Amino acid sequence: MATVSERFLWGRQEGRVRHWSVFVGGFAGVVSALLLGALLGSGSGGSFTFDVLLPASLFYAPPVISAISTFRGGGLLASLAVGVVPAISFGAVSVVRQLVAGGSPSDAPLWAVVVGFGLIGVVGSVVGFLAGRGISRFVER
Q1: Pairwise pLDDT comparison (47 vs 1), residue with the higher score
Q2: Residues sharing a CB contact under 8 Å with residue 73, sequence separation 6 or more, in sequence order
Q3: Distance of CA 87 to the CA centre of its chain
Q4: CA-based end-to-end distance of the chain
Q5: Rounded mean pLDDT, 95-124
Q6: 43-79 burial code (b ≥16 CB/10 A, e <16)
């Protein structure tokens, strides 16, 4: 039997590893694929990727995925991991781009952009976690 704080942090006991791999790992894969596609692709879908898909995946998706994860039995730590996924993926893809393409660094330091994305993602994921908790409590009644 899990304590209340353990369930709050980690979520339900059953299927915990699968939950992390689906929500955190799946979201990391999607965000990394979008970032790599935006980096390598420069075709007709480039403007759609830059204008719609990247902002949606970097800023709007973490609260939604966090709320769904919480509703499905995930804990606060899974939600926080969902919140930092876009920042870590952006940093990794940017470092790979600089190493492979030999591009010069941008105006802002990479660490500042990664920390900014991370803060936005964490705040969004906490809001999503609280919304998921509220929805699950409403549904249980």
Answers
A1: 47
A2: 11, 12, 15, 19
A3: 8
A4: 22
A5: 84
A6: eeeeeebeeebbeebbeebbbbbbbbbbbbbbbbebb
